[in-house]
Amino acid sequence: MKINLANIKKAKKFLYKNECIAIPTETVYGLAGNAFSDKACKKVFKLKKRPKNNPLIVHYYNYQNLKKDCKLNENFFKLYKKFCPGPITFILNLKKNSKVSKVVTNKKTTLAVRFPEHPVTRSLLKQIAFPLAAPSANISSRLSPVCSNDVKEDFGKKIKFVLDGGRSSIGIESTIIDIRNKPKILRLGGIELSAIKKILRRKLIIDNSPAKISAPGQSRIHYSPGIPIRLKAKKAKNDEAFLFINKKKVAKANYFFLSKKGDLNEAAKNLYSTLRKIKNNKYKSIAVAKIPNKGMGKTINDRLTRASKF
Ligand code: AMP
Ligand code: MG
Question: Is residue 224 part of a domain?
Fold first, then answer.
């Protein structure tokens, strides 16, 4: 992808003034501010209408930049080497003299960190002297944005600048792993659990149950298109959109599919944009046909289950 240097310069200018901008990442677009600035981080929470107790993910260029803020360990490096930059978020212990704003973590002693792969955001991160606190660029609990237009749908002129990077290639949020002690998965996401297990060579504790909220991305009402969703549907009602994993032989106006051939990675990439299309086509509800619960299918089912609690 060609990087527009003038746009990166503009983005830098806003960030150095402690303004928030939207940035592209391979997972979803982020609403970014200087993670060392209380003022910028407060703006992120306010714009997103995000509860103060839901901490932000902080985006770094590389681990060398992170070393001053967090305590790193062997398991971190194993996963970093294999998956970073990429769609994985680590929960680490903050160092006492870390410069990360207390607003980011609501005074918690842990920090969620990620190294995004998107070339535009990597170029930006390389050029600035601070990491970026950047949760997804949507109003809290709504659908996550996978292109600059999605961001504009939620925020309009309230965001000073959207750094365009085209469509997000993964299209679904990062996998969150608490790597401080026994590795614990807090959110399913862009990297499959089997791939993580293979690197760590040990069992993973999965702690993403909707009932127990240790990462608010786990909260039940999340990722919602704002209309009811029913899962494992066999039929759709008259005014319902019918969502399938793969394309059907018969095409009906209310039929939507996530991947022509039922490829689960492609389906994950298309999930949010398809839900948004259905919402914008004014359907009143969505019936979702069964989706295989394996690989990225697990992440898709996780998001749809939470969205169905709306
Ligand atoms: P998003 O707002 O889409 O970027 O998602 C960020 C996710 O990371 C949310 O689910 C947060 O609750 C989670 N998170 C951020 N910081 C922490 C932390 N220190 N411990 C546990 N989860 C965290
Ligand atoms: Mg989010």
Answer: no
Dist CA 234 CA 83 (whole Å): 38
Q: Is residue 221 part of a domain?
A: no
- How far is C-alpha 12 from the chain's CA centre? 22
Predicted pLDDT at 115: 98
Mutate to test the pocket of ligand 1, among 54, 71, 111, 146 (most ligand atoms within 8 A of CB): 54
**Are 112 and 233 found together in one domain?**
no
Looking at the structure, tell me whether residues 20 and 80 fall in a common domain.
yes
Phi, psi dihedral angles at 9 (to 5 degrees): -60, -45
Return phi, psi of residue 238, to 5°. -55, -50
Q: Is the pLDDT of residue 8 over 90?
A: yes
Substitution candidate for ligand 1 out of 50, 71, 109, 176 with most atoms within 8 A of CB? 176
Q: Are 299 and 193 in contact (CB under 8 A)?
A: no
| Same domain? 175 vs 105 | yes
Amino acid 141: pLDDT: 84
Q: Are residues 197 and 251 in the same domain?
A: no
CA of 253 to the centre of ligand 2 (A): 30
CB 219 less than 6 A from any atom of ligand 1: no
Same domain, 155 and 196: yes
Q: How many structural domains does the chain have?
A: 2
The answer, yes or no, to whether any atom of ligand 1 lies below 6 A from the CB of 145, is no
Reduced to 3 states (helix: H, G, I; strand: E, B; else coil), residue 22 is strand
Ligand nearest to the CA of 55: 1
For the segment 259-278, what is each residue's pLDDT rounded down to a tens digit? 999 999 999 999 999 999 99
Of all atoms in ligand 1, which is nearest to the CA of residue 56?
Answer: 15
Residues 28 and 110 in one domain: yes
Residues 159 and 280 in one domain: no
Q: Distance, CA 29 to ligand 1 centroid (Å)?
A: 15
Place of tokens 């359907």: 283
Whether 16 maps to a domain, the answer reads yes
* Secondary element (H or E) of residue 266: helix 264-280
Range of the domain at 76: 5-206
Q: Whose CA is nearest to atom 9 of ligand 1?
A: 217
Task: Confirm or reject: Cβ of 225 under 6 Å from ligand 1.
Answer: no
